[in-house]
Amino acid sequence: MASERSLRPKRDIDWKKLHFGEALPIEKAQIKKATFAETFEVEILISRKISKNEGHSNLVKWDGYHISESIYEPAIHLPDTILQTFECPNISSDRLQYASFNLEKAIQQRLYSTGNRIVLDFDTDVYRFCFGVESIQILYKADFSKLPMSTAWYYKLKKNGRGTKLSFPVRIRSHVHMRKSYRNENGKIKEYCTPIERLIMISAVDALCV
User: What InterPro entries does this protein's entry cite (predicted)?
Assistant: First the structure.
């Protein structure tokens, strides 16, 4: 009798499916990526951040859109060719000249001041081209070689041959600040965040006599 009670039909149950549901199709993310690339064109990648939930994300400036409409997009949504430009940006000579002029001007002003801090607008892709992807770095004079500054960019002399010069190494940081602004659109107040790209340099100054 005991053997008869144990002879029950076996139920074929997929317990993993019962508890966790149907597996998501892998091609879903690929379709989203392809559609996204065809809909918008990336003008430039401004910065990058890493979060536990989304992994790598890039702050994207879209071609044809105002910079205040830049948003962070997960790296999986962007083509590999675009992601490669983050670490190896292509910078025109005109932009390098403009960045060099502004940096040298800020350094010269610093040499006549008592503070140890320089803050100026400086595009993050130019920063990466010149100094690499690390946002905080310790640099020596030779590390500024990609910027076409004058031979006297790091010192300032008076008529008597005395002056001041930057004391190397210096500490630099690339920083993106999201500045909030508001617009009236069809009777509704809409918030925008505009990325402000800056370079911050911390340095000491030494006396110079020639």
Answer: Chromo-like_dom_sf
Question: Quick one: which of 64, 126, 55 has its CA closest to 89?
Answer: 126
Q: How far is CA 15 from CA 23, 25, 30, in A?
A: 13, 19, 29
**How confident is the model over 25-68, as pLDDT tens digits?**
433 333 333 334 456 789 999 999 888 777 889 999 999 999 99
d(CA 138, CA 63): 34
Give the DSSP H/E element, type plus range, for residue 106: helix 93-111
Q: Residue 178 belongs to what H/E stretch?
A: strand 162-185
**Mean pLDDT highest for which of 49-58, 62-71, 75-84, 168-177?**
168-177
| pLDDT score for 25 | 43
Q: How many other CB atoms are found less than 10 A from the CB of residue 83?
A: 16
> How far apart (Å, rounded) are the C-alpha atoms in residues 57 and 41?
16
Residue ranges in 119-168 assigned as alpha helix (H)? 124-131
Q: Half-sphere exposure (CA, 13 Å, Cβ side) for 88?
A: 4
For 23, phi and psi rounded to 5 degrees?
-75, 140
Determine the Cα–Cα distance for residues 33 and 38; give it in Å rounded to an integer: 9
